[in-house]
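QA checklist item 7 of 12: single-chain prediction sanity check.
[x] sequence parsed
[x] length recorded as 301
[x] structure emitted
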Amino acid sequence: MPNIYQNIGSNKRDTFVIMVFFVAVTCFIGWFVGNYFYDGSGISFLSFALIIAGFSGLFSYYSSDKVVLAVSKAKEVTPQEAPDLHNLVENMCIASGIPKPKVYIIDDSSMNAFATGRDPQHSTICFTSGIIHRLDKRELEGVVAHEMSHIGNFDTRLMCIVTILVGTISLLADWFTRGLFFRGRRRSSSSEGELGGILFLVGLVLLILSPFVATLIKLAVSRKREFLADSTAALITRYPRGLADALRKISQDTEILEVANSATAHLYITDPVRNKIKSSVSNLFDTHPPIEERIKRLKSM
């Protein structure tokens, strides 16, 4: 079984593969729609798709954390306002070797937390008031270590960028699909034939399914990185039971975090938007692995 350091290395390699995949899909969608629905303007639409993806990526890289904090109605707290919480964060920073992030609080009695930021030098950890007041010190320490792990493993950067790229692919696919219904297929006969028909069919399927597939990939990446963050947190605290107990208490919390939504749910330590109905199909769209499995892995460490 790979150790924590091998998992971190694997995660970094996966980051590159995922980014290449999203860029490739975006380029293909642009080329396909331009080539088949807009008089062979494949290169023009490919360039347009790249420009959109580039602007989205830059915005995500530099501003996504500010957007998430604003949407979450989080407020920054100083060491004077929350001395115990800041001391806990500082201790975990020393243990993990990561610069101290900014500390924010969401005034909500539900129990949750998340980290955001493009790198450890520009990072933020946000807690609900409920999780601060209802967990004991060792449990909250495990939560802080988990979020510090996301920062140290650069999960916060990857998930912000992947979220924007998924949104971009969905937007482009939706916009380009209008060409199918309002313009029809306007490809010149020079490219017709068996190969052209196959390419058209493949492109059409990808165009329709790409938002769905991209979303599943985003959720799969999020679930995998939750396991890694749990393992890293156990390595930092040397006390896996603290995080395991915290996860158990959080899973028993029936309150819904009002400010959370489907766009930000994957950032939190547990799913803040809990579905009342679960099935094998709906589980595909879970932003987190099962709590029971996470606790089981922590207890086995």
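[x] summary fact logged: The longest helix spans residues 194-237.
[ ] second reviewer sign-off
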